[in-house]
């Protein structure tokens, strides 16, 4: 018989999902909650909260996901949303450079209220699409992880949750277990090896941590010419 611990035995954490409108925040959650993929963009109004129940090789975890409207015309971001948050996902669309350029802004807003120790995964969605032109760079930061996924191709969907659970439970070898196997959307055209290679290339070229807040770095100077976007300059 499958072991299913009761909810009270789980560790429960509030997790914010931030990012520009249309990057796929609600889709990511829906995929995990129901397995379904919705083609149409129905903007979130205000926020939706949904709890994901996860089994790991250590401890059962409940992530209370706060899916917040990316478009301020649909409610915007209230400081109250951040209270008692224990972790966050900042999502962007790998095919739209403006959403990558916004990651720093979301990160700064989060840090203003929650500080810079909250575990955060910066997460590029829609990995099966053609990538935006500027090269993406990620700066090493103690509380931040980076990953890419495709909700449409059902590729790497578990990774952001696994990365967060590892940090929340402070177990580097934590793995999610008993997760449902999700299928790509019918007729979805994707190349898994290429997606993995692109994600690995961002991870391999990771920039060193910033020494001082005022420090400028070479890629950022080049970034002014839109050849690079440093995702987390917060
Ligand atoms: N090609 C592709 N499209 C995706 C993927 N994930 C989501 N989408 C599409 O992106 C659009 C926006 O998705 P949503 O999940 O509603 O975006 P959101 O970030 O919640 O947007 P707001 O609620 O407005 O902040 C929808 O049309 C989805 O079908 C993906 O992995 N690949
Ligand atoms: Mg939404």
UniProtKB/TrEMBL annotation:
Gene3D superfamilies: P-loop containing nucleotide triphosphate hydrolases. The keyword Protein transport applies. Its main location: nucleus. GO terms for biological process: protein import into nucleus; ribosomal subunit export from nucleus. One of its GO terms (cellular component) is nucleus. Keywords: GTP-binding, Nucleotide-binding, Nucleus, Protein transport, Transport. GO terms for molecular function: GTP binding; GTPase activity. Pfam families: Ras. InterPro entries: P-loop_NTPase (IPR027417), Ran_GTPase (IPR002041), Small_GTP-bd (IPR005225), Small_GTPase (IPR001806). It is found in: Nucleus. Belongs to the small GTPase superfamily. Ran family. This is GTP-binding nuclear protein. It comes from Drosophila virilis (Fruit fly). The lineage of its organism: Eukaryota, Metazoa, Ecdysozoa, Arthropoda, Hexapoda.
């Amino acid at each position: 018989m499958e072991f299913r611990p009761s909810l009270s035995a789980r560790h429960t954490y509030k997790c914010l999902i931030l990012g520009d409108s249309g990057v796929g925040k609600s889709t990511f959650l829906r995929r995990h909650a129901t397995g379904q993929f919705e083609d149409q963009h129905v903007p979130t109004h205000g926020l939706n909260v949904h709890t994901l129940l996860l089994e790991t090789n250590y401890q059962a975890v409940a992530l209370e996901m706060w899916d917040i409207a990316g478009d301020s015309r649909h409610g915007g971001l209230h400081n109250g949303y951040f209270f008692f948050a224990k972790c966050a996902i900042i999502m962007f669309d790998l095919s739209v450079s403006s959403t990558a350029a916004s990651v720093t802004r979301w990160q700064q807003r989060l840090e203003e209220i929650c500080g810079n120790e909250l575990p955060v995964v910066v997460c590029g969605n829609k990995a099966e699409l053609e990538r935006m032109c500027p090269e993406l760079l990620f700066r090493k930061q103690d509380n931040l992880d980076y990953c890419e996924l495709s909700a449409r191709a059902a590729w790497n969907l578990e990774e952001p949750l696994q990365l967060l659970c590892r940090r929340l439970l402070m177990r580097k070898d934590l793995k999610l277990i008993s997760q449902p196997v999700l299928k790509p959307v019918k007729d979805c055209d994707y190349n898994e090896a290429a997606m993995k290679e692109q994600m690995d290339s961002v991870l391999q070229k990771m920039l060193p941590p910033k020494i001082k807040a005022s420090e400028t770095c070479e890629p950022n100077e080049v970034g002014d010419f839109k050849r690079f976007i440093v995702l987390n300059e917060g």
